[in-house]
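User: Okay, second chain of the day. Same drill as before: sequence in, structure tokens out.
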Amino acid sequence: MTSPPPVFSRLRCPNAKGENAMLSFSILGALQIRTALGPAEISGDLQRTLIQTLLVNEGQSISGESLVEEMWGDSVPDNQANALQAHISRLRRKLKSLEPDRVSSRVTIHPSGYRLTVTEGELDAAEFAKTVRQAEVAAASDPAATARLLGNALAMWRGPVFGDFTGGTLCQLACGRYEEHRMRAMELRFDAELRLRNHAAVLAELHDAHTNHPLRERFCEQLMIALYRSGRQADALNVYRRMWQHLSDELGIEPSPALRRVENAILSHDPALACDSPASVILQPA
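Assistant: Same drill. Structure tokens below.
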């Protein structure tokens, strides 16, 4: 049985002119555009780069010069203004064909550049980032809601941002920004699951997260705590030793005070690490 599409793709939010939004854009994975009738394709590398660059600006204007550099890099055509305008017109026609009842064009020109209108609920990356911010607020008081909220949000990811077609510098920077949101969401979710005593349920995921991001110390801390709570103190300490060696070899630094506190807590069987302890798994300095 196939799972339903993400919630954001089913939202139909009225815009400022009362029009019903009929498109949703997904960039947490290869670029996807969904219409009321199903998915739509954007053909051509330049067109994909254009719409991806407009999307990562999340409704803000971007200058023509920036778009030209993003689309052509060092191979700028002789008449770049005309070339860009031709692609803008082509994208407008494409989006209009997907929303024939829409009165105004989604792509508009402003003194500061070009803008793609994206309203609330239409872009998965924006919805994901908003959910992470909401979870940060709820994390301290409601771990169950935090874990549920972030579990659903992380399920929106279908792969790397833009898939294998990352585009130019602006899109690559956006990829890094959204990836950092994903890492933060994973950390918050693991914290919530550990507070809910679900260490066994997330142990495999924590191991994968630590393996895939070996320099991210928070995943190491969380994995050590989950292993300790699973009765595997020696394994937890081995994870720390390997992390210490990795940081030394790769960056020439020692583990952070937070990571060292987790090691010391494990060595001393600190009650704060116990499953039945009300203390937070985030160990604070003495």
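Strands lie at 24-26, 32-35, 38-40, 107-110, 113-116.

User: Thanks, on to the next one.
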